Amino acid sequence: MKAYVYGANGPEITDVAKPTPKGTQVLVKVHACGLNRADLGMTKGHAHGAAGGVGTVLGMEWAGEVAELGPDAKGVKVGDKIMGSGGAAFAEYTLADHGRLFRAPSNMNFDEAATLPVALATMHNAVVTNGALQPGQTVLIQGASSGVGLMAMQIAKLKGAKLVVGSSTDPMRRGRLKEFGADLAVDSKDPGWVDQVLQATNGEGVDLIVDQVSGPVANQNLKATKVKGRIVNVGRLGGTHGDFNFDLHAARRIQYIGVTFRTRSIEEIGAIFDEVRKDIWPAVEARKLQLPIDQVYKFADIGKAFEHMEANKHLGKIVVTL
C-alpha cells in the first residue's frame, strides 16, 4: 500500500506492507487525514513521544471506514464510518485501537470528520477534565487560532463560559477568533495584553488559562490568572523553556497542570475518548463543534500540504484525501 514515510532523504510516498490488526486494533481504510503541528516536526525527523525517525509512517489523525477487526476489537463492525487518532495515519490503511476512535456522524463527510479527533480529545481533556471549567467562569486560550485552539474556545462556550479570551499574534487570524467563540481577542506579543484581560475581568484575571504557547508568556499568564485559578499547559508552540516567577505562582495559589498524549497509555487515551462521547457528542452531531477546512490536497500532493502548513498563513485544518 502507499504511505507517506520519513526516509533517509526526508519524507516521501512509498510502498509499505499493509498492516494486520491484532488484539483490540481496527484496520481502517483511510479516506482523509488532518495535518497537525506535530506532523510538521516529524517530516523533519523530529520525534513525537516514542514515534519518529527513519522508517516512520507519518500522520496521526484520520477518517475512514472499518476494513477489518482484531480478535478483541469491540464497538464497531466492518464498513462503519469512523474517525480517530493514532500513528501512521498518512497511508491507504492504518491501525487504531478500538478505544481511540469515534463513529463519524452521518451528516459529516470524510474531510470534515478528519479535522476533529485530535482537537476534540485534546481540548475536552484540557478545558473540562483538567481545567474544570464551570458555567459562568472565564477562560483564556493561548494560541487560539490553531485548530485545537479554535475547538477549545467552542468547548468553553458550550460549557457555559461567561467570557472567552483568545490570543493570536497574527492580525488576520486574531480578527476571526470571534467567529469561534472569543469575546475578546488579544495579541500575546503585545506587552499590554495582560492589562486587557484584567480590564475585562474587573481586575481579577481569568479562572482558567489553556496554554499552548508556554515559555515566553509564562509569567504573563500568572499575572492574568485570578487567585486560586488554573493554568493547563498543553503545548510548547512558543518554546520549551522560559523564566518562571515561582513567588507569583505561590502568591496567586495557581494550579499549574501539564497534559500531553505523548506519555499516556492506550487505556488513558481510551478514557479520554469515552469522556468526549459522554459529555459533548450531541454537540458534535449537531455541528455545534466544528473546524474550518483551510485547504484540501490530494495524497499525491501531501508535500505541498506541508509547505502550506509551514508557511503558517492558514486558519483551520489542512486536509489530505486518499
UniProtKB/TrEMBL annotation:
Enoyl reductase (ER) domain mapped to chain residues: 7-320
InterPro entries: ADH-like_C, ADH-like_N, ER, GroES-like_sf, NAD(P)-bd_dom_sf, Zinc-ADH_QOR/CCCR
Pfam families found in the cross-reference section: ADH_N, ADH_zinc_N
Keywords assigned: NADP
An example molecular function term from Gene Ontology annotations: oxidoreductase activity
PANTHER family: QUINONE OXIDOREDUCTASE
Protein name: Zinc-binding dehydrogenase
Taxonomic path: Bacteria, Pseudomonadati, Pseudomonadota, Alphaproteobacteria, Hyphomicrobiales
